[in-house]
Amino acid sequence: MPLSDTMTVGAVSTAASDNATRPRLLFLVNEDRFFWSHRRCIALAAMKAGYEVSVAAEVTGMQAEIEAAGIRVYPIPRLRGLHNPIREFKSLARIIGIYRRIRPDVVHHVTIKNIFLGTLAARLTGVSGIVNAFSGLGYVFYGRTWKAFFLRTMICTLMRITLRGSHIRYILQNDDDLADLERLKILTREQSVLIRGSGVDPEEFQPTHEATSDGPLNVLLATRLLWSKGLAQYVAAARALKSQGLNARFIIVGRLDPRNPDHVPPKQMQEWVDEGAVEWWGHRSDMPKVLAGADIVCLPALHGEGLPRVLLEAAACGCPVVASDVRGCREICRDNLNGLLVPPDDVASLTEAFSKLLQDQPLRERMGQAGRAIVVREFTAEQVAQQTLEVYSGLHHLQGAISVEVGPQAAQYPAAEGRRAA
Alpha carbon of 173 to those of 111, 134, 200, 220, 415: distances in Å? Predict the structure, then answer.
């Protein structure tokens, strides 16, 4: 049974009346699909701790499954992405209406746009417990176009004005993002906590024990199809290695993202497939199965990340990883321990890293075992749920109302063993 369904979490204090209203927790996230993949463990743990949990998000096909778990979904159309001011005001009005209807004790906003709109809505509706979670700074902070510069300047100014108050707590996924946001005077270190990633369930993502095969080894890139994720560099490395005669398949898993200004067009994806450089499997919801067939997992991102979930999942499955030496990626990819770090936008270094791992089975096995140990020790869903619930209960109006107990489970998880040979 998945860990997220079995974790032990303390309940509402017995000092409160049995008839007292349960504290209400509301998530504001881009999409229901993202909520279910990245925040499910927190939501289920919160329910076991005594919270009544809801989520406001753009609905993309997961509403029924989420509500079957006892979590109410409030749809907000086209919440994801930046739109014209009229549409954004409509989104804000809808968020305000939801906050007035639910009257949450704690709101948990995820991603920059939702942090801004959600905090503004919370202020206008009297919500006193605000948790703002930055899952990476993204296009607005890293983009080099005039549009990105304009948005960055505008958003930073608005956030400095809106995100003030001792009742707000911030969750960051890496130290670099925390330092940047503190330098920009958007938050203070005293209000912030570092929770590295969304966690992974080591029981769901386990090492596989596949038989030795003489077939090609599989190099996997699973990500949103954005230029900033390093897709062009990955394809170039695949071309180079295939020209050298290495027996490997280069696989891309991920959906098109046409609403993102950084998206890779479908025509370009098809051209890469047609030339034989890579395989494109589209979106997959069965990542444990996909990772079971991977020998190397990579993320050659051009800019910083929050803490990429796919690298956590890969490490939990005993896969060695290759990633850019950027914020977020280096949190989980420890160079020469469980993977190889390469400079961003450096095709030669990326090609060399792939070649090294593809030709060295013992190295792949050692790195896979080390990655599994790192995840079990530092990055489990249980740990993330406990740390997040402690943020909720630390808000002044809930102190003492919620007790959190999540027992350590590391010793129960199986270690990584050898993967298939070259």
Answer: 12, 7, 14, 24, 25
